[in-house]
Design brief:
The chain is mainly beta and about 700 residues long. Among the domains are: about 20-115, Cadherins (Immunoglobulin-like, Sandwich), CATH 2.60.40; about 120-225, Cadherins (Immunoglobulin-like, Sandwich), CATH 2.60.40.60; about 230-315 and about 340-350, Cadherins (Immunoglobulin-like), CATH 2.60.40.60; about 365-460, Immunoglobulin-like (Sandwich); about 470-560, Immunoglobulin-like (Sandwich), CATH 2.60.40. Helices cover about 10% and strands about 40% of the residues. It contains three helices and 46 strands. It is elongated, with a radius of gyration of 63 Å. It starts with a strand and ends in a 16-residue tail after the last helix. It is a single-pass type I membrane protein.
């Protein structure tokens, strides 16, 4: 069939379907409504029925269009807003009226023709912005933007911006707006002339029939900049400072600034020129802008009685100046700027004299003194200086710190002398150094001023100490082979008067006892395998690096460690019984002496001769420390007196060596070692000395120590 449209436009093919797009509706058509938009005709031999559906019919905006089902006439019933619906998409159908079969179905587009019915609208009606007075011409001030809802890309939506008015109008400032809506200025701002501008901006479209527009207001606040320099107007204060003091403020500097108070353009900061010693600082009073000068480092009258300073002042914010010299029609104007010239003032600070304490030019000294030097020897001399040259004081020296009391100082000259012998090994000496502090005092002033000097005295070491065994009683296990134990010695002297030491066994035992190695701080004492379990006393020669030596007794307990792991514990138990035996012997001797004395003074019979105590003791002492294979026991024989006054004593078997279980049944006679002085043996004769070495191997008399090879 043939489709006949009342429009002269042909059908268009859109994505495999035919579209009727020759119908247009003018936006905001004034009517009257309804009016005929057009007609669709079909050339058929049978009756057809027309239908429309889609936007404008049964979809939003509903009820805009209708079609006569018999004639195909399309009518418009009310206005359409282009900004809401720029095109109406519909579906056209023609049905066979006899059987309702679809004869034709086509897409249909109705275009809404835009008219200039929307003015440009600014995003904001009022723009409130702030700019600094020091801003340079050409700087961006604010940007405005207007939007037109009419069809994009048409004259109806093309916008032009224009500045309508500026209030107040100043001769040195002019605003301009760019096509983008950015506003800038020419010339210079001056806060004192105008601190706020009100700018009216218009946005207008280019509609052909009618041009629509709207306006916005810009409130431009000018922030006061630093275009006025602060000026120093004067000073207050005495300008006097007492030497040796700090923290005082002798002067206050006064400044004025006509910029806005409490802004960076008004606030000031001060600087000082001529303060070579760094004695002063100056800070700003935040409320008044005054500069307060303060002494932060004490001044010295003797060094400089006057201080000449220059005080400068400037604002926290950088200074600027702007002056318009020409206003050409095109481009920016011609402006000039002037450099800043800070305000300044010269001041004089007078230093007042005060009593200064004496001082030591060399307050820390080091000297070297020999250990055990001559008493009264000169050590060093400290000299203090009185800085008060105009009125010198009498100075007196004294020792403030001398822990060991080894030194004295001449109170007038400051000379230091040795008062007591120096001992490098004293606890008051640290790493060979002894510290003395000397005090100097002004005696003719009140309160007296003082100062101190420290003398570090290095004491040169002397070889005045001998090597000493750390322990003089050791134990060693009995073995069929060679066995050993460690021996350690020490010497309070320092190098080279101490170790490593040389060790040597001298006397009768040197064939069966030796040191391996024989040189060092700790060596091994080696026992020959032929030495049996017993208690031995060795004489050990210990020499330092300089060959100075000492002879010391070393007591050694040897035992079978399988029976008793601690030989010394076993021996000490036996010694308790041995000490009781000694007590009995001493008691018996004293009884004999008392009886003899009584017989000599009170008896009427013939006087008897005195008993020879040494012989008695010699006959009653038992030999010990005898090496004999197979026996190692302690037996006590009876004491036989040469005179009838002696009591009889039946010998008893106490125990065998290494059998301590029966000791609990005995009643030991013991002399506590803390109540008995082993030096008493020195006055009881050779026999008791032998007995003492057996019973107390750890003790030795002072005469047993040999210094420099002599006993």
């Amino acid at each position: 069939g043939i489709i006949c449209l009342c429009s002269t436009e042909p059908l268009k093919r859109h994505k495999r379907s035919w579209i009727i797009d020759s119908f247009d509706i003018v936006e905001e058509h004034p009517g009257p409504f309804p009016y005929e938009l057009g007609q669709i005709k079909l050339d058929r031999s049978y009756f057809v029925e027309f239908m429309l559906k889609g936007k404008g019919v049964d979809e939003d905006p509903k009820g805009v269009l209708s079609i006569d089902s018999s004639t195909g006439v399309i009518k418009v019933h009310h206005k359409v807003d282009f900004e809401q619906y720029s095109v109406l998409m519909l579906t056209f159908q023609a049905r066979n009226k006899s059987n309702l079969a679809i004869d034709t179905q086509l897409g249909m587009e109705v275009n809404i023709m835009d008219i200039n019915d929307n003015p440009p609208i600014f995003q904001r009606k009022v723009y409130d912005v702030t700019i600094n007075e020091a801003a340079k011409q050409g700087s961006f001030v604010v940007g405005v933007l207007a939007i037109d809802k009419d069809a994009a890309g048409t004259l109806n939506s093309t916008i032009d911006y224009k500045i309508i008015s500026v209030t107040p109008a100043t001769k040195n400032t002019e605003f301009y707006i760019q096509d983008s809506g950015a506003i800038s200025f020419k010339g210079c701002f001056d806060y004192e002339v105008a601190n706020k501008y009100t700018i009216i901006v218009e946005a207008k479209d280019r509609g052909e029939v009618v041009k629509l527009s709207s306006t916005a207001t810009i409130i431009l606040n000018i922030q006061d900049g630093n275009n006025h320099l602060p000026v120093i107007t004067g000073q207050t204060g005495s300008g006097n400072v007492v030497e040796g003091t700090k923290g005082i403020s002798p002067l206050k500097i006064h400044t004025t600034d006509i910029d806005t108070r409490l802004t960076p353009a008004w606030r000031v900061r001060y600087s000082i020129q001529g303060d070579k010693g760094g004695h002063f600082s100056i800070h700003t009073d935040p409320d008044t802008n005054d500069g307060i000068l303060t002494v932060i480092k004490p001044l010295d009258f003797e060094e400089q009685a006057e201080q000449k300073l220059t005080i400068f002042v400037e604002n926290e914010e950088s200074y600027f100046s702007c002056e318009v010299t020409a206003t050409p029609a095109d481009g920016l104007w011609t402006v000039i700027t002037n450099p800043s010239k800070p305000s300044s003032i010269n001041i004089i600070i007078t230093v007042e004299d005060a009593n200064d304490p004496p001082y030591f030019p060399d307050p820390k000294r080091k000297v070297v003194v020999e250990e055990n030097g001559v008493i009264g020897a000169f050590v060093d001399r400290v000299t203090a200086v009185d800085p008060d040259t105009g009125r010198p004081h009498k100075l007196e020296y004294s020792i403030e710190q001398d822990p060991a009391g080894w030194f004295r100082v001449d109170k007038t000259t400051g000379e230091i002398f040795v008062k007591e012998a120096l001992d490098r090994e004293s606890s008051h000496v640290t790493n060979g150094t002894y510290t003395v502090t000397v005090l100097v005092t002004e005696k003719d002033d009140h309160p007296p001023m003082t100062s101190t000097a420290t003398i570090q005295i290095h004491i040169e070491d002397k070889n005045d100490n001998f090597p000493v065994l750390k322990e003089n009683t050791v134990s060693i296990c009995q073995s069929d082979e060679v066995s050993s134990t460690e021996i350690t010695a020490y010497d309070p002297d320092g190098d080279p008067y101490s170790g490593p030491f040389s060790f040597e066994v001298i006397g009768d035992h040197k064939d069966k006892w030796s040191f391996d190695p024989s040189h060092g701080y700790t060596v091994h004492l080696v026992k020959d395998k032929s030495v049996h379990a017993s208690l031995y006393t060795l004489i050990v020669k210990i020499s330092d690096k300089q060959g100075r030596f000492v002879l010391q007794n070393l007591s050694i307990a040897t035992c079978d460690c399988a029976v008793s792991p601690n030989c010394l514990l076993q021996r000490n138990t036996q010694q308790t019984v041995g000490s009781g035996l000694i007590g009995m012997i001493i008691f018996a001797v004293l009884m004999i002496l008392a009886s003899l004395l009584l017989s000599l003074t009170c008896s009427c019979v013939t006087v008897k001769s005195l008993v020879e105590v040494d012989n008695v003791l010699g006959d009653t002492l038992l030999p010990s420390n005898i090496e004999k294979p197979g026996t190692d026991c302690v037996r006590l024989h009876s004491i036989k007196s040469q005179e009838n006054e002696l009591l009889d004593y039946e010998p008893q078997l106490y125990t065998f060596e290494d059998n301590s279980e029966n000791f609990a049944d005995l009643d030991p006679i013991d002399l506590p070692i803390n109540e008995f002085d082993p030096e008493l043996f020195s006055d009881l004769g050779p026999a008791f000395k032998h007995l003492a070495s057996i019973c107390n191997p750890g003790t030795r008399s002072k005469t047993e120590v040999m210094k420099n090879g002599t006993i």
